[in-house]
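The methods section describes the discrete structure representation at length, but only in general terms. The central task, working out the structure tokens from the amino acid sequence alone, is never made concrete. Nothing conveys this as quickly as seeing an actual entry. For illustration, here is how one protein appears when written out as sequence plus structure tokens:
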Amino acid sequence: MKNPPGTKRSNRVRKVIVGVIIIFAALASFYGVMYLLTPYSGFARALVWMDADIKDYEKFPARTMDNTPPLFNFETVDSATQNQYLRLLDTIVLASQPSSTNTTVTQASFDEFLASTQTTAFLIIKDDRLIYENYFNGYERDSINTSFSVAKSFASALVGIAIDDGLIDSVEDPITKYIPELQNKDSRYSAITIKNLLSMASGLRYVEEETPFSDDTKTYYDPNLRVAALSAVIEEEPGKKFHYNNYNYLLLGIILERATGMPVAKYMEEKLWKPLGMEAPASWSLDSETNGFEKMESGINARAVDFAKFGRLYLNNGSNWDGKQIISEKWVSASTSANSTSDPSTEYQYGWWIYPLQSDVDNNRHFSARGNLGQFIYVAPEEGLIIIRHGYDSGNVNWINLFEGIAAATA
């Protein structure tokens, strides 16, 4: 007996539908397994969480850094002065953007420009006065902003403080003095100094690719960052070449842990967060609950105004709001001054990006802590200026160009 007309076609359609359902179920099951593995697997995190974003602090566990009274507050200005500065900002925003930018800001006010460029927080402090403060795209003053690589500047400060405390002898110390197991792995590690780590000149291999297996992904998502740091491989002689590399600051985290005898976040709470009179507690994201190691390359989470207080510390050569020296002036200078005689880059020193001035006769310089997706602490000491910018992404804006324009206009 022959099958009715169309039966074969119906069977083929049915098989296709069943096949699609099976594939969908398999993918859903695989995703579910990967989701359950995110606390334990960097590969699973990369597949499920995908690219980094400013809400990642909600995904990682974290260690709290408490604040304590007395709190420091920047002075506020009256409405007339605020309006005066806002009119100034309105006039310089267009001039500060290169003609090649794809962001249309023609006839936009400063506020409109910031809102349109995915900014979440923007603060300008001039001579300890908060002359501009605004929040956008769902953020408020009490919103938490994540640092990404701005954390490296904090980590650098902690190394300087540990040297001041006598817990670390010198930036010239070989890292094997604090991490001796690296000597057993490769004797060449004894040639790498703390200074090499700070200035991104360690000679360690670092491959940046958009894959779950790249060093970028590993140093961000691995649930055991201590082991990841110790797995770094020497590629070339230290001190010869600048290569931005997250392994450097993970190794600094291990050194800080061992030198201070406490978690890095707790050392920061004691030495920075409380002394600087921060407005609110903060946190430092951890690699995992099990291993509890701070994400040294990226993970500080706090209010925008408290990031500004850290910028103020460097603007004031290491002293806080009541005149107490929190970190040595020598360290601040070494961290933020171009020095091509001892480091391979004149644009990056100890966790800070440096912008020497054209008329640099007195070693005047501007510098910034800089993080992924356009997070900034920008400091112009000779203008008494601090600028904070946080955002969902960089908004296709040359922010340093804008900051320099603000610095010139408010000088």
Notes: Confidence is low (pLDDT under 50) at residues 99-106. Residues 1-37 form one domain. The chain has 14 helices and eleven strands. The two ends are 95 Å apart (CA to CA).
